[in-house]
Amino acid sequence: MRIAFLTTQFPHTRMGGIGAYTVAMASALAQPPHKHDAHIFTFTLPDDVRAQLPALAPHVHIHEVPELAQRIAHHETSAELAATLSVAGDAVYRLALAALLTDALLQLHRTTPFDIVEAPDYEALLLPLILHFAQHPDPHRPALITHLHSGSAINRLGNNLPTTEPDRAIDALEASAISLADARCAPSRAVVAATQTPRFPPRPPPRRARPGPGPTHSTPPPPG
Question: Mean pLDDT, to the nearest integer, of 115-136?
């Protein structure tokens, strides 16, 4: 089977448990006795990490995708667009990163289709791919799987952090990537149960403006 993984994290460069899991899982699937055709789509790696790939991820195809800064340097996107994405908020920026990984995967999928694509719930990396196939039916559409690691909402809950308005946008993206996926997988049933439980505070009702004690203005009587 041809199996693809999407991740922004990668060992020794963009640290995180998701990156370590992705490399370990892809390597295990690519080696005997499985010998699946495993691919990882991530962003550009430093030279020293790239040199370690034969030992770090044996038999795995690593696809490095240029980030926004690299695309600007090579005149592949405008600085204005990149600046807009950077200031539009964390949710929009994450969605842009997911779209870059999706574009790279689709270029390869069109020539040699994948059977399975897996991405983490964190950062909603699978969402642009889900939306793409919803708009463009494909007879070779792969199974789209969201792996439940620890999404942004659960992270805040575990660390007793408040939920801000930008957080709600990120939560909505991640919840969509979970609910719209063909399947979900997790290291334990407890993670699935925690994700399905509505533990997070609802959006507060909008505040109504109250008239303040502003200055009063008398209306002059009409002439004559």
Answer: 95
CA-CA distance, 152 to 63, in Å (whole number)? 26
pTM: 0.82
Residue 194: which of 160, 223, 222, 153 has the closest Cα? 153
Give the Cα separation of 195 and 146 in Å (integer).
12
Residue 113 vs residues 1, 2, 117, 165: alpha-carbon distances, Å: 10, 8, 10, 39
Give yes or no for a contact between 127 and 95, defined as CB atoms under 8 angstroms apart. yes
CA nearest neighbour of 168 among 155, 152, 147: 152
Distance of alpha carbon 110 from alpha carbon 9, whole angstroms: 25
d(CA 220, CA 121) in angstroms, rounded, equals 65
Are the C-beta atoms of 63 and 108 separated by less than 8 Å? yes
Residue range 203-218: average pLDDT?
Answer: 50
